[in-house]
Amino acid sequence: MSVTKNELRKEMKNRRNSIANRVRKNRLIFQRLKQLLLHFNVDSIFIYVSFGTETDTHEIIRQFIKSGKSVCIPYTDSGTMSVKTLHALPENFAADKQGNIECAAYLPDAEFKCDCAIVPMLAFNDGLYRLGYGGGYYDRFLRDFEGIKIGIAFDEQYNNDFTEEETDVGLDIIVSPERIFQRKEIL
After folding, report:
1. With a threshold of 0.90, does the pTM exceed it?
2. Alpha-carbon distance 7 to 97, whole Å?
3. pLDDT digits (tens, 9 = 90+) for 161-186
């Protein structure tokens, strides 16, 4: 590999920041993801609350809660990630640099297993591995996760310039505006 993961993270952040037609692409991702969740009859999800230039999850969260299904979100503090139950997404919320929404610390811990985990990424490769932000929080969470592991990303985030490490956990599906990348045995 000619570049380090940290160099690639910087490059991929810049690439993600410059993506055009973001609203249309987020809508396409949402439509594809919604069909997958229906196909797998998902009743509960673990999902990140997007901020900045990440693939938008706000509408997904609102629709899922509106349909009466269970939603939990990550909360990261002091080097560990816990799972919190979310009953409503605040209209005007702020997220910190770890992606925590301001009320997350006070939300109840999730007391249910989620059918599906939807995770963020800076990049993804042919092996359905994600390049994250470097903290390892999601890989540690996904290691023992028994449900469907889905990443959502823009097509511009595809990049084969990194290889997975022993601690990385591959995803089952990655949804982009133009394609669904999947492990053959999942669908």
Report:
1. yes
2. 19
3. 888 889 999 999 999 999 999 986 66
